[in-house]
Write a structure and sequence with these properties.
Blueprint: H1 44-58, H2 68-90, E1 91-94, E2 98-104, E3 107-108, E4 116-119, E5 125-131, E6 135-140, H3 142-145, E7 151-153, E8 159-170, H4 173-178, H5 183-200, H6 204-210, H7 212-229, E9 234-245, H8 251-320, H9 322-338, H10 361-372
Antiparallel strand pairs: 1-4, 2-3, 2-5, 6-8, 7-8, 8-9
Helix pairs in contact: 5-7, 8-9
Length: 373
């Protein structure tokens, strides 16, 4: 054994025997301990030889002697190991949520491996995997993360803190794996840039309350256009604005502005209600006047129509008997005109002589009228 010849054959690997004391001391103050049965430790070459004998007995044919037969056995074992290594590297499995892209001498193939068991010619061919399930990416939100990524300048020179999320998936595994070095980092940077661009064109009120959906749709369109220009193999399914708020340093002042705007909206609403009330009242009065005018017009037209009809009927009768009708009209007209007169007309040359002309006929009429009442 090699250990038995070191240091003059006296001390083993710790070299204690060369000190002349016969006390085998190691670096920890104590030399190696022999087996319990006494004697020297087993020889390393003997252990190797025994292992080779057992391996030859396990192989088919029992193996040969320690010469050429032993070398052949080792070659077989090495060959089997290489075959096993080649199989483990050549056979691969694609999971249902993955797609595989095979590379031959580092150049990707055109076809994409679908889920299942596949085989390549390793080491000339390798494979890369891409997960195709939909994933979520959050960005912005400086008040929550403590960074300044979400701080943006709006179109009306206000600073807003925007937090939004992306839902995206891999639509082209080959482009996703080989066109960009870090496609997800690129997607994050493009998303932040697109959001800053859209927010910078609009007033802060749009991002706070009014047009979040419109802004999110516009940002999604910009992101997809930029990612397709690489191309990146990424499909952006949705952009949603989770929160938009002013920076913490101006939050109190912004709350005051919001309350003032709410008061303004309330006053405008009250003014609109008062205007609607007065306008409704005026419209009602106008409608009433129109109805009265229409009724007056109908009444006057009907009266005129009736008078015209009466005149025509009288004219028809007059045409049938002009003399009689003329006399009747004359007498009716005199009766109508002189019926309320206070004068008494006595025909001269008649029989009305004596005291009749001296009677106070108007007084008699008044007395008779008063007595009747």
């Amino acid at each position: 054994m090699p250990w038995s010849n070191q240091n003059g054959g006296g001390g083993g690997p710790w070299g204690g025997g060369g000190n002349g004391g016969g006390n085998d001391q190691g670096p920890w103050g104590k030399g190696p301990q022999p087996p319990r049965g006494g004697g020297n430790p087993p020889d390393l070459e003997e252990l190797i030889r025994r292992g080779q004998d057992k391996l030859r007995q396990a192989l088919p044919g029992g193996g040969g002697g320690p010469g050429a037969g032993g070398g052949k056995m080792i070659a077989v074992v090495v060959a089997l190991g290489l075959v096993g290594l080649w199989l483990t590297q050549s056979v691969y499995t694609v999971q249902p949520d993955e797609r595989g892209v095979e590379l031959r001498f580092g150049k990707p193939k055109e076809e994409v491996s679908q889920p299942g068991l596949h085989m390549i010619l390793w080491p000339f061919e390798t494979v890369e995997f891409a997960t195709i399930v939909e994933r979520e990416m959050s960005t912005g939100g400086s008040s929550r993360t403590g960074s300044s990524d979400g701080l943006m300048l709006s179109g009306d020179q206000n600073i807003v803190d925007v937090e939004f999320k992306l839902l995206y998936a891999v639509s082209d595994p080959k482009s996703f794996l080989f066109n960009l070095a870090q496609p997800e980092d690129t997607l994050r940077q493009v998303a932040e840039s697109a959001m800053r661009e859209v927010v910078g064109r609009r007033p802060a009120q749009d991002i706070f309350r009014d047009n979040r959906e419109v802004i999110a749709a516009e940002v999604q369109t910009i992101i997809q256009t930029v990612m397709d220009s690489f191309p990146s193999g990424i499909l952006v399914n949705q952009v949603s604005i989770e929160d938009a708020a002013p920076p913490r340093e101006v939050a109190d002042a912004f709350d005051e502005v919001q309350r003032a705007e709410q008061d303004e909206d309330r006053f405008v609403e009250e003014g609109n209600q008062y205007a609607n009330q007065k306008l409704g009242q005026a419209r009602g009065e106008a409608a009433q006047l129109r109805e009265e005018a229409s009724a007056y017009k109908d009444r006057v037209v009907n009266e005129a129509t009736g008078e015209a009809g009466r005149f025509l009927s009288v004219y028809e009768e007059y045409a049938k008997a002009p003399e009689v009708t003329r006399s009747r009209l004359y007498l009716e007209t005199l009766e109508e005109v002189l019926g309320g007169s206070e004068k008494v007309i006595i025909e001269q040359g008649g029989s009305g002589s004596g005291v009749v002309p001296y009677l106070p006929l108007p007084e008699v009429r008044k007395n008779s009228t008063g007595g009747t009442n």
